[in-house]
Amino acid sequence: xxxxxxxxxxxxxxxxxxxxxxxxxxxxxxxxxxxxxxxxxxxxxxxxxxxxxxxxxxxxxxxxxxxxxxxxxxxxxxxxxxxxxxxxxxxxxxxxxxxxxxxxxxxxxxxxxxxxxxxxxxxxxxxxxxxxxxxxxxxxxxxxxxxxxxxxxxxxxxxxxxxxxxxxxxxxxxxxxxxxxxxxxxxxxxxxxxxxxxxxxxxxxxxxxxxxxxxxxxxxxxxxxxxxxxxxxxxxxxxxxxxxxxxxxxxxxxxxxxxxxxxxxxxxxxxxxxxxxxxxxxxxxxxxxxxxxxxxxxxxxxxxxxxxxxxxxxxxxxxxxxxxxxxxxxxxxxxxxxxxxxxxxxxxxxxxxxxxxxxxxxxxxxxxxxxxxxxxxxxxxxxxxxxxxxxxxxxxxxxxxxxxxxxxxxxxxxxxxxxxxxxxxxxxxxxxxxxxxxxxxxxxxxxxxxxxxxxxxxxxxxxxxxxxxxxxxxxxxxxxxxxxxxxxxxxx
Length: 492
Known about the structure:
Shape: globular
């Protein structure tokens, strides 16, 4: 795998070390699965290059990013900075006040093209940018980090798996084109052919955490199957029971652990799922993806990435910096730990699914329009679910699940936090009314454009970890924002 940006980044790092052996490496990163995977690859790469381990700091907004840069430079002059997924807001990097003589290397799936306004006197390198303004999502940072590692002649099967996990998560983002996903997968598949760590690429069933739970629970956690079964969000799960019976499996047997189940009922399960799925209108039960053999069986990249995502959500509380940092640590342990950590994350995710399933169904049944707006604080039917509706990460999981029920984009308003702000999380692609052929535009991009256009109240708005589909706002400002967003979608 070759990437011109990675080659230039490696050369910039080596030049910096030649200028000063004390030139430290600093990795500033946002909190998401792709970022966590990229940081792990960078850490392993830089430990083979630099005289001391890199400093790694998680940041959630531009103010924290500026403070982190200033603090590092105050301790000893210019640094080699890696900015991992800290873009997307189109801010000018001059605000960071980078010292002349330093190096700034950008890996950013949220900014598909480089910015023109580069700080003077600083060596800037952009990695993995696809150079297409039409694409709201760029190359996964974990894939860029893998390019970087390989330019340093670090061949690591673990790093390859980390890049696969990052790519798997980015592939689910709204606005990612199928052509992009297939291109990333081809690049990684070419590496798998030479891998000896049990990694393979092929078709997998869309059954979340099946190998870590049971068939019953796996189907319950599958939004695409749940949507077709219709009524199975209810506690009694009649349609789910019917579906399992159609597979020729007694209900009680579908709830036993995966290992025992496969011995007793695993024969022809793939064929039965395919046949029953077609009868139920489930024509997309399979997807192309990666998996790897482990000491206890196999783990799919989809499951491992979902475990990372749910761990990040579970530990991140209301998305203040300390809790997000803790969430990042929890996810990092799952990334590098044993299969049991993935299983524990699966169990944790499973506990939240009842709330997510019920709320997702209700969101999908709300008033049909170009954009479903759902305020959870006004819905008593989901208030008993969980206080997690204060956390944008859990709201994003809910929004993804709601989208499985209907293809209408969703805007969720969460519960008010202790600092009098509410989280707003959008998911999906909008059809722009009044445009030729009803042009498709990612909701995240429209949310950013509305924020930029707002004349007042910007001091009451903050982006969550640089992700333009997740925002904090005061209630009054949020009301104005929603009015402008709906007007924009309607072509106003």
